[in-house]
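Final report, Chapter 2: Outcomes

The project's central promise was a pipeline that accepts a single protein chain and returns its three-dimensional structure in a standardized token representation, suitable for archiving and comparison. That pipeline is now operational. To close this chapter, we reproduce one record exactly as it appears in the project archive, with the input sequence first and the structure output second.
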Amino acid sequence: MPAVMKIWKQDGLLGFFRGNGLNVVKVAPESAIKFYAYEMLKNVIGDAQDGKSDIGTAGRLFAGGMAGAVAQMAIYPMDLVKTRLQTCASDGGRVPKLGTLTKDIWVHEGPRAFYRGLVPSLLGMIPYAGIDLTAYDTLKDLSKRYILYDSDPGPLVQLGCGTVSGALGATCVYPLQVIRTRLQAQPANSTSAYKGMSDVFWKTLKDEGFRGFYKGLIPNLLKVVPAASITYMVYESMKKSLDLD
């Protein structure tokens, strides 16, 4: 609540939507790349297993993790700029312009700065995407087999499966997301800049304890869970509309 009150006091209602435009631009290609890569890798693994339609849990985990990694690398610079835009201080109540912020990062920190925090991001994204996609497919198959008796899952079942899978994946990898966000948010020329992943880990552990790695988990789940469930529902609807099942 202190964070909510601080944002409201400094930036008003619009402060809660800072960086949302860039986030919308980022999410569309990220989701498209992730789902395309996932379906493609499932087909490749199935062909390698003599044409099996069910590649099993291990196959789904691998396909989901690799799909998440490919998508994350493709859109990572936008993710970093979005994080900087959300966390930088307002100048007299004015939000920094996207173009100005991007130019400042390029000029003062160099092009490599757009990939700062990529390693912990990938270390978090690979298990997150693997768990999320695997849990969703597994829950959907179980509901089809034991609840719907081979009928196709409807929107409510898809929402339920997406809710559980999104919450499970996000909670499991949240400490890595904290490390990634702290690396992204800091300017490279800051006197208190972290030196890398291990530096973030030990400073967080020393100053905040293990609870520091789960700071902000509830707001994150409030964002991730509905987003994941709606994404899966739209994904299934588009697959059906395009006759891709």
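Archive annotation: The domain at 1-115 is CATH 1.50.40.10 (Mitochondrial carrier fold).
This record, like all others produced under the grant, will remain available to the consortium after the project formally closes.
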